[in-house]
């Protein structure tokens, strides 16, 4: 059994989360183990999931990173000078991109789709022709029309 710690810092707990995640532990296991050691001072379960899911990005840029950004900026500036405003149309920023995700069709939706495709065209034609008479009745009665 692990010993209960009397005090801990947020950074210490984040380091533990990162370490256990790197070892392949699941977030729920990490939180359970941390709860056993830190007790009531343990970070919330949602924070453990957030720390595991978030990217571990260094906050400070190295000189190499700064150089890469400088070269990319110069490249963009030269292309803008050569191509003009048309160059800007080809740039997609994070808040302007459209990402479509796949949503699988439900059983109900596929059953409805099969039923619609199984009907003959005269079924739909009859329904459309009935709309004309219903529409005329509705206009004659100034919208006070309910089919019985």
UniProtKB/TrEMBL annotation:
<feature type="domain" description="Mos1 transposase HTH">
    <location>
        <begin position="14"/>
        <end position="49"/>
    </location>
</feature>
<dbReference type="GO" id="GO:0003676">
    <property type="term" value="F:nucleic acid binding"/>
</dbReference>
<dbReference type="InterPro" id="IPR052709">
    <property type="entry name" value="Transposase-MT_Hybrid"/>
</dbReference>
<dbReference type="InterPro" id="IPR041426">
    <property type="entry name" value="Mos1_HTH"/>
</dbReference>
<protein>
    <recommendedName>
        <fullName>Mos1 transposase HTH domain-containing protein</fullName>
    </recommendedName>
</protein>
<dbReference type="Pfam" id="PF17906">
    <property type="entry name" value="HTH_48"/>
</dbReference>
<dbReference type="InterPro" id="IPR036397">
    <property type="entry name" value="RNaseH_sf"/>
</dbReference>
């Amino acid at each position: 059994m692990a010993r209960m710690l009397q005090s801990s810092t947020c950074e210490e707990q984040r380091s533990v989360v990162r370490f256990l995640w790197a070892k392949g532990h699941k977030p729920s296991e990490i939180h359970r183990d941390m709860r056993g050691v830190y007790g009531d001072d343990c970070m919330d379960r949602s924070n453990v999931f957030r720390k595991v899911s978030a990217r571990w990005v260094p906050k400070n840029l190295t000189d190499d990173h700064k150089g890469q950004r400088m070269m990319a900026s110069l490249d963009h500036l030269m292309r803008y000078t050569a191509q003009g405003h048309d160059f800007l149309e080809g740039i997609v920023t994070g808040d302007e991109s459209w990402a479509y995700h796949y949503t699988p069709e439900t059983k109900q939706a596929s059953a409805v789709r099969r039923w619609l495709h199984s009907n003959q065209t005269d079924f739909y034609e009859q329904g459309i022709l009935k709309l004309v008479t219903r529409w005329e009745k509705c206009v004659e009665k100034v919208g006070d029309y309910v089919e019985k």
